Amino acid sequence: MNVAATLYRSFSRHPQFALINLGGLALGIAVFLVLFLFVRFETSFDNVLPGADKVWVVDRKLQFGEAEPVGIPSRVDMVDLLQADYPGTQGARLVAADATVKARGQAAKEQIGLVDPAWFDLFPVPVFAGDTGSALSRPDGAVLTRSAAAKHLRPGDPIGQTITLVLGTEERVLRVAAVIEDMPVAMTYRPQVMARLMPDQETFFEGSSGVTTFLKFTDQASAAAMQRNLKGFNARHPDPNFQGPDNFMTVTEAIVPLASLHLKDPRDGLVVATLGALGLIALGLAIINYVNLATARADLRAREVALRKVVGASRTSLIIRFLAEALAAAVLAGIAGLALAELALPFVNAAGGLSLEIEYVGARGILAPLAAVILVTGVAAGAYPAFVLSRFQPAAVLSSNRSPGTGRRGAILRTLLVVIQFALAIALVICTTVLFAQARHLQSVDLGYQRDGLIMVSSFADPNLDPAQRSAIRRAIEALPGVTGTAISGVVPTGGSYSISKSSGGDIPAEIDLLEGTVGRSFADVYQVRLLAGRLFDPGRFPADLSVPIEAAVEDSDTTKPTKRNLVINRAAATALGFATPQDAVGKELKAAGTFAIIGVIEDINFADPTVAVKPFAYALANEGDFPPNLTVRHSGNAEAVLQRIEAVWQQRAAGVPFAGNSVNALLYKSYLEGDVQRSRLFAFGTVLAVIVGALGLYGLAAFNTARRVREIGIRKSLGASSGAIVRLLIGQFLRPVLIANVIAWPLAWLAMREWLSGFSERIALSPVYFIAASVLAIAIAVITVLAHSLRASRIAPAEALRHD
Amino acid sequence: MIELQAIERRYRSDEVETTALAGIDLAIAEGEFVAIMGPSGCGKSTLLNTLGTIDRPTSGQYLFGGRDLAQLPESDLAQFRAASLGFVFQSFNLIDELTIEENVALGLAYRKDVSDRKARVAAAMDRIGIAHRARHFPHQLSGGQQQRAAIARAIVGDPKLILADEPTGNLDTANGEQVMNILTTLNDSGSTIVMVTHSPSHADMAKRRIDMLDGRIVASAMRAL
Lengths: 805, 225
Hints:
The complex is a heterodimer of chains A (805) and B (225). With 805 residues, chain A is an alpha+beta fold. Helices cover 49% and strands 20% of the residues of chain A. Chain A is built from 24 helices and 25 strands. In chain A, the strands form four sheets. In chain A, strands 16, 17, 18, 19, 20, 21, 22 and 23 form an eight-stranded mixed sheet that branches. A six-stranded mixed barrel of chain A has the order 3-4-9-6-8-7. In chain A, β14 and β15 form a beta hairpin. In chain A, α2 packs antiparallel against α20. The radius of gyration of chain A is 34 Å and the shape is globular. Chain B is of the alpha/beta class and 225 residues long. Chain B has one domain: P-loop containing nucleotide triphosphate hydrolases (Rossmann fold). Helix content of chain B is 33%, strand content 28%. In chain B, the strands form two sheets. Chain B has a six-stranded mixed sheet, with helices on both faces. A four-stranded antiparallel sheet of chain B has the order 2-1-4-5, covered by helices on one side. Chain B is globular and about 45 Å long. At the A-B interface, α21, α22 and α24 of A face α2 and α3 of B.
């Protein structure tokens, strides 16, 4: 009888067993496949286009004194300078911008890229129409992706159609010269509309990133040589923009592989590694199940093995047979797993903010990895049963009236595997709840201002609005129902603009890096900042409270301006400056970029990443109009409704400028929290399924163990055991390994989560509740899983049970 | 002590109905030693299981000390078995994972009213002569030793009735004799015993012999003293 027939008969005789065994394996394979796709997507970032591994990015860093270096745009003439120093250097620049594209009488925001004509040598995206080689040789040439072409152009031949780019306050009319295929999603830089980078757009303009320089090398050695050459680059080519006094500013240049950018943040790398490990764990749990159930059933197959040996089967032929059976099961499970993964992928993509897809053909096809998984799964799952079963001595098996099976050793192994499974499951559940609790915590953490009921109108700062338009829009917004106030400020949630300077002198000897931002008069009211000591800015004390932008103050020797201006600092600044209490700072003189008096101290306001500690910050009052006019609206009631009213006002008064506005909560979520939440969801997806796989295994094992103990149940009942006592006995047998699993899971999860939480300045405490809750859940799952079998077994008539063997 | 009236037991599978007991009337007095004989399938094991309340009659009355057991719910029957019965099986039915001592203790495990369990277990093992094997597992013992352990388990709770289903069926002659001697001694000291056996000589060691055929009692005879 061949393997397929054996498998089929075995499955049709024990459909429940087949379902558990294959279903669990399929589920494990599905989880593994999905997370494999995720890991491959994340790790293959920027490595999709041919030659991508030879592209490097110039990494320029600016360091103020001893402060943490920050990344800054590269020099606009970087490629020219390098080509002069090292002829043959191949490079291209990119200025990425979120700019308005006007076409067909409509205006829409688009990710655009101003690039050098050589761009397409470095990023050879397949061409759909036209010619990218010559497209940007003309200053008015434009290259669009197919999606962008469909969005902005008239149907029909795209080549020659015109579009208008709004860059800062300048408009450029462009002619479409080429359309390229959509760029792979796994690319860091993927502008949708590309135009030639012109000299007047090289410096920073509204909505742009500044220049990023890409270099292409023929091999690793030449990249390494360039890395060494760049060490002396700044000495050879001093940058006049960064010539601070006393070596206050240090600029360094280096190159990094393009492909290393995506997982540059070690936390991202950790997440990808963790999710990859989770995929392996899920698969491992499924394999453990298979081995567990297979060895358990091996006891039942002992007679079959003995008979085969009697009729002449060799040990090798039996090993091959059992391996083949396991492989055949793995193939079935693999196909089912692939189907499950296909079904699950849309949901996983939605929950995780991903765009994973399963490809069947080509270099990134799923079939080769799937075949590998099936092979590994089949061999891993089949090996132990094969070697144990084939060792049975036929005479002993056939003469015994009890099945010899794997006996005590097998039972210990099975218990051990259950312990491992549940330890992993419990640890995963603990980690998942901590992940979600932390994500929740970050969404509600005190940021030093009242974030609910706050809307940011980002398009208010668009350079194409004039002051008169702005004040008209602002007045109209203030008059809207539900709006209780508006504020203009340079600093806003998710960023805004601020400057950094060294504080030194005055009444305060401590030298610190002080960030300084400007705010308008109603800022404190609208944001509901909390005063700790001193006072806030008071429009009545004009002009003493008034400051001007720091750049202007440095250069400006105009003595009509007040020589000493007032500042409100945050708690972190007061502490960093060496004051024991906020009150101590009030009234002190501070020298930074100018001379200031500290009039008040407020609670730290965190406008940036809620996961990162707030830096020392000073707020200066300024004339509205003297700094980037970011508009924030305080409102009551539903944010969506107010937002719609604001947009309606906008469309009436500034139809030419695309509206951009959102609630502060939504912006914070998108900027800082969404990634963590999405990854937590992926983690939860893996965890839930891993737990299900574990529960399936336990269910199968409970079924088997209960069947094996039917006779014992009969004996116990004849001795007067009640049904309740039997149920307690059977459940207790499984609870013991689950309880032991807790002892392993708790420290594991504790260590992992302590490490992970240490990456956050705002973090939850690792409360015992998470651990206890996970254990209670695990115990509940274990009890529910084995309860059905136990109840059924406990009701068997004892006389019948005693006949069982 | 025991009165069976018109006990019937029928098994029904999909197609056929089998009658295992077809109207059994039987009275057993305290202190009796009854041997039940008959060919395979005559219903003797079913009768024994019915007496042991591990099989329920389809109809009829089972009075034990005046109490109608046929009407009791399963949970009460479990208590009854724990307090009043001791079983000895042909295949010993020791639990493989437990030591001999633990197996014997199982005879008291489901009794709530017992104190001094350890001493009683030790006493029962001593009485049957298995105490030196207390810490062994069943598979380390010979068949005769295993059956003696099973008897120790049956008597540890001082049952009113000992039910033995072919207790010597799996034993060689010498071990079989030994087990029979133990049972006779137990009966001499007051235990009521009902035993199913295929061996006429062992049946002769009982005080009364019942012959069964096709679910009925066909002969009942007291041993001549």
